[in-house]
Amino acid sequence: MEGTVTRVRSVLCEVDSGDRTYTCKARGRLVESDTGESKPVAVGDRVVFTPTEEGEGVVEKVLPRRTKLSRKSPRDRRTEHVIVTNVDQLLIVASVREPPLTPGIIDRYVIAGEAGGLSPVVCINKIDLAQDPSEYADVARMYREIDYTVLLTSARTEAGLDSLKEVMRDRSTVLAGHSGTGKSTLINAIQPGLRLRTAPVGWKGRHTTSSVSLLKLDFGGYVVDTPGIREFTLWEIEKRDVGQFFPLIWELSDDCRMPDCLHTHEPGCAVKRAIETGELLQARYDSYVRIVETIEEERVPRDTDVEVPEEQIARQKRKPSRRKHKQDMRRILGREQEAEEEEEEDEGYS
Ligand SMILES: Nc1nc2c(ncn2[C@@H]2O[C@H](COP(=O)(O)OP(=O)(O)OP(=O)(O)O)[C@@H](O)[C@H]2O)c(=O)[nH]1
Ligand SMILES: [Mg+2]
Ligand SMILES: [Zn+2]
């Protein structure tokens, strides 16, 4: 039989066949095979399994993955921790306050999403806590300028939830971001019956959601809730890959003197020149450098899960797919803010 993994707990996983859910173990050879991953199956995986007793089964095989969101395992940096597979988009949930808004983490998720074939969407939640919209306007503008959909939401006042639903309708979406930004609360707000556990109001403790789960949305589509991650370390991204996720830096790099310019210390760097002239924001550059600096120049060749890696994350395919997604989103949302972005795009930001 075939099914979709909806949850993974230690050695067991839940597999939804469409008719019912089976609690499965993974076949021994799957557990032992050296894929370089921390677990043999991930939430979102399409699997072939053999039902055994009532409601139980054994996973025989994981089918090729369409997309995946991965990070470096916090326990072993040579191990890939696959958070979720086969979802369409990554909703990066940040909050205006509690915890504070930090673009650095958004950038990391953007890169991980793009690298894994997921379309990133930025969601700035808890806008009700802002004394003034200027607290988040710059960050929102920054991501819109580089062609991403930015949603401004409040699970408390329900602001922006209609747009969020439209973005999620008939697609599969994983919510990720720091602990406490309101991921589970947002999911509960768009589909009240789910009653996911959320942190009590005002509680400063973190990590309320403890496992990744795939849920069906009544209005169409699927959503994956994930636990907040304190440190999100990119998996299999090289230093020289980072620039392409910063569109203006990517564009400027054509004029750098050194062919493999990383824009950190090289002579004749057009990116550094652009900071001096004000064409490139210092904050964008700093964010770029922070990410480059955290990447270790070391590749561990592994026979990972994607059968034809070129098909999944081919460099030349990334940008068009992002643009296509963006166009879809624009159609769906049809809002003024989106028209603004279009103008900016004409100015050559994309
Ligand atoms: N003021 C305000 N509080 C919110 C909003 N959304 C969520 N919260 C609160 O923020 C806290 C954390 O919400 P959660 O939904 O548990 O956060 P999470 O992102 O799922 O956190 P983890 O599961 O730990 O990753 C809760 O106390 C929520 O009530 C919002 O829009 N405005
Ligand atoms: Mg949660
Ligand atoms: Zn350069």
Indicate the proportion of strand residues: 15-25%
The major sheet is characterized as: 6 strands, mixed
User: What is the N-to-C order of secondary-structure elements (H for helix, E for strand)?
Assistant: EEEHEEEEEHEHEHEHEEHHHHHHH
| Total discrete domains | 3
- Tally the helices: what do you get? 12
Instruction: Write down the overall geometry.
Output: globular
Q: Which sequence of strands runs across the widest sheet?
A: 10-9-8-11-13-12
CATH superfamily of the largest domain: P-loop containing nucleotide triphosphate hydrolases
Mean pLDDT value: 85
Give the distinct bound molecules. guanosine-5'-triphosphate, magnesium ion, zinc ion
> Using DSSP, what is the number of strands?
13
What is the top-level CATH class of the largest domain? Alpha Beta
- Spans of at least 5 consecutive residues with low confidence: 303-320, 335-350
Helix content: 25-40%
CATH fold assignment of the largest domain: Rossmann fold
Reported CATH architecture of the largest domain: 3-Layer(aba) Sandwich
Helix/strand class: alpha/beta
Overall radius of gyration: 21 Å
CA(first)-CA(last) distance: 44 Å
Descriptive overview:
The protein is built from twelve helices and 13 strands. It is an alpha/beta fold and 350 residues long. It has three domains: 2-64, OB fold (Dihydrolipoamide Acetyltransferase, E2P) (Beta Barrel); 69-225, Rossmann fold (3-Layer(aba) Sandwich); 239-294, Probable gtpase engc, domain 3 (Ribonucleotide Reductase Protein R1, domain 1), CATH 1.10.40.50. The chain has a six-stranded mixed sheet, with helices on both faces. Strand 4 (46-51) and strand 5 (56-62) form a beta hairpin. Helix 2 crosses helix 9. It is globular.
